[in-house]
Design brief:
This protein has about 350 residues and is α/β, with parallel strands linked by helices. It contains nine helices and 19 strands. The structure holds iron/sulfur cluster.
Length: about 350
């Protein structure tokens, strides 16, 4: 019987993000994500979708596991072309195994027998065409971890750029210098989840804190537009000390990186912690502002977090972009090339 994995393996090409470590034994090392899997002939990486066939790394190509049109604020990006429509695609598999994953049905393919979804066979040209027909001005690799299918993403993004669309990554940030260099010419914006400031927590999720911190610095230094999200999970990462650590770290990279603190809802295998309250979100946002971050947002609670959904000018505090959830109510920056209409301060972003 043909399994889903068999079908996915048929839709692969030779990868570019790997090196041969032992030609005689056909051992290779993948560097598409921070795991840097050493894979023997016939073996698979931690993500389950990249595998070694005769000393060649085979990587996914020519399909998607999810396809949807979203407002850019849902990604969330608050500082790239407000209210733009984004065609968003997801793939199958992930390099982490977060127990609260909201997209576990695609991300945990290969790890959880309940997960997996029929792929939609497609091409870069078709995805861009679908996006254009729906009014999208950007395309995003999202829902599962995009780093593990970076070669396919670059194929799509090259076509998107040819057609005048922006290209975005919505990622857990478990990157490597090699993959960031590889992606840089083909990307316009990168969102990273900073899930905790505690390495023990990251190990539970299948990651390493330092990889994420290093990737945040690398992405910022590369000149890509970067926004950071921390999902506030009660009891996991919501202590004031940890939130201060996160805010101070981001501040040390740049005070102009937007920080979104968003609300957790019980999902997948993490059903014990209660949902994040509005008060918790506001407390976290206040820590961000007190630490010196210029753009802090509280998400997933439309109309219930005071002014923390809006963009303020860091100099005169005027509200320059007003939002309700993912909807932009007013954008004063569209006519000013990103400058505050009150005091002319530059509001960082891609307007
Ligand atoms: S993408 Fe990451 S998890 Fe997958 S094979 Fe490469 S290094 Fe391993």
């Amino acid at each position: 019987m043909t399994t889903l994995q068999d079908r996915l393996d048929e839709m692969t090409v030779a990868g570019e993000l790997y090196e041969v470590v032992d030609p005689a034994e056909k051992k290779i090392r993948c560097f598409a994500c921070g795991h840097r899997c050493l894979i023997r002939d016939g073996g698979r990486g931690v993500c389950k979708v990249r595998y070694n066939e005769g000393g060649v790394l085979r990587v996914p190509h020519g399909y998607v596991g999810a396809l949807q049109v979203d407002p850019i604020e849902k990604k969330p990006f608050n500082h790239i072309t407000p209210s733009a429509t984004v065609i968003s695609f997801g793939m199958l598999g992930c390099d982490l195994h977060c127990s609260y994953c909201q997209n576990w049905e695609i991300s945990q393919h290969g790890r959880d027998k309940q997960a997996g979804r029929d792929p939609y066979v497609t091409s870069a040209a078709e995805l861009v065409k679908i996006g254009k027909s729906r009014g999208a001005t950007a395309i995003a690799s999202t829902y599962n971890e995009p780093l593990i299918t970076s070669e396919w993403a670059v194929t799509i993004f090259k076509e998107a750029h040819r057609q005048g669309m922006k290209a975005l990554y919505i990622s857990n940030g478990n990157g490597t210098p090699e993959v960031i260099r590889y992606l840089r010419p083909h990307l316009d914006g990168y969102k990273i989840d900073l899930k905790a400031m505690n390495d023990k927590t990251y190990r539970q999720l299948g990651g390493v804190l330092q990889n994420v911190l290093d990737t945040i610095r690398l992405v910022k230094e590369s000149g890509l537009w970067l926004e950071i999200v921390t999902l506030i999970v009660p009891g996991l990462n919501d202590s004031p000390d940890e939130l201060w650590d996160a805010a101070r770290f981001i501040r040390s990279v740049s005070p102009d990186i937007p920080w979104h603190v968003t609300a957790f809802h019980p999902d997948y295998r993490m059903t014990d912690p209660p949902s994040t309250t509005e008060k918790m979100l506001v407390n976290a946002a206040e820590i961000g502002a007190e630490a010196g971050l210029h753009y802090v947002y509280a998400g997933n609670a439309p109309g219930r977090v005071g002014d923390w959904e809006h963009t303020r000018c860091p100099s005169c505090q005027r509200i320059v972009v007003r939002r309700f959830g993912f909807r932009v109510i007013e954008n004063q920056l569209s006519a000013t090339a990103g400058h505050c209409p009150g005091c002319q301060t530059l509001i960082h972003g891609v307007w």
